Amino acid sequence: MTNEHYKQIKLLCYVHWIVSQKFNSEAGVRDIITLKEVVSMPGGGSLTCFTGDKLSNRKDLFTQLGWFVYYMIEGEPFNSRNKTLTSLMIIWVLNHYNLKYDTQNLMKFLENIDTMKTGNSDISSWFANNCQ
Amino acid sequence: MKRKIIRVGSSRGILLPREVTKAMGWEFGSQTELTVDEKIKEVTLRTIKIDIPEEYNAEHLKEIEGTLEKFQEILGGIDD
Questions:
Q1: Stretch among A48-62, A115-129, B1-15 having the lowest mean pLDDT
Q2: Nearest-neighbour CA in chain A from B44: distance (Å)
Q3: What domain count does chain B have?
Q4: Predicted confidence (pLDDT) at residue A130 exceeds the cutoff of 80
């Protein structure tokens, strides 16, 4: 784990805290190992799109988002509102990158992901096909 | 504005008017910081501010908070 990984974990913990305050849900990390997996991409990579990197390559961005969504939903690292946090971060990043997408379509997709049938690369492909 | 010192048990206290607590966003249990300058006989009461570490982009955090506000209805309806 690098400083960048820890920075991303702290960011997600902060955002989860504001989500739990907003919706009166249980704050806190359920499983720190799972949370480490969320930010730890293969080859020492991480979710740099959350911490200021303006990725010029859309493929890299969608790869990071696919990884994030898959491991957040599959691992549920927080005590509550994992899908809410996931959706919030995705909406923020897509808006931050000025990408066009259909909010209802995105929410429907995120809510219905079955991690037994959908892998992180499938999720990346969905972003590539539906966000421009 | 002028306020009188009142007795609160064995201590001395000042009641904060509603417009002050509303303007400051203070609720019961809100954390405040009291500082005293004996030289000029002045007391200051302020909200405790959380300093965001330099490594974080404060603009990004504000954007995320703004996104939560803007999409709260949709996000609140997610079946988690």
A1: A48-62
A2: 28
A3: 1
A4: yes
Q: Hey, are the CB atoms on A84 and B80 less than 8 Å from each other?
A: yes
Establish if B75 touches chain A: CB-CB under 8 angstroms.
yes
What is the arithmetic mean of pLDDT over A60-86? Answer: 95
The residues of chain B scoring below 70 in pLDDT are: 49-54
A103 and B71: CB-CB below 8 Å? yes
Please give the C-alpha separations between residue A118 and each of A34, A51, A110, in angstroms, as whole numbers: 18, 26, 11
- Asked if the structure places residue B58 within a domain, the reply is yes
Question: Do the domain assignments include residue B27?
Answer: yes
ipTM: 0.90
CB neighbour class for B68 (10 Å; exposed up to 12, middle 13-18, buried from 19): buried
Domain extent listing, chain A: 3-130
Average pLDDT, chain A: 92
Q: What residues of A are in contact with residue B65 (Cβ under 8 Å)?
A: 18
The pTM assigned to this predicted structure is 0.75
Q: Give A3-130's CATH code, choosing from 1.10.600.10, 3.40.50.720, 1.10.3720.10, 1.20.120.1870.
A: 1.20.120.1870
Rg (CA), chain A: 14
Measured in angstroms, the CA of A11 and the nearest CA of chain B are apart by 8
In this prediction, residues A113-120 reach a mean pLDDT of 91
Q: Domain residues for B17?
A: 6-75
Nearest-CA residue of chain B relative to A83?
Answer: B80
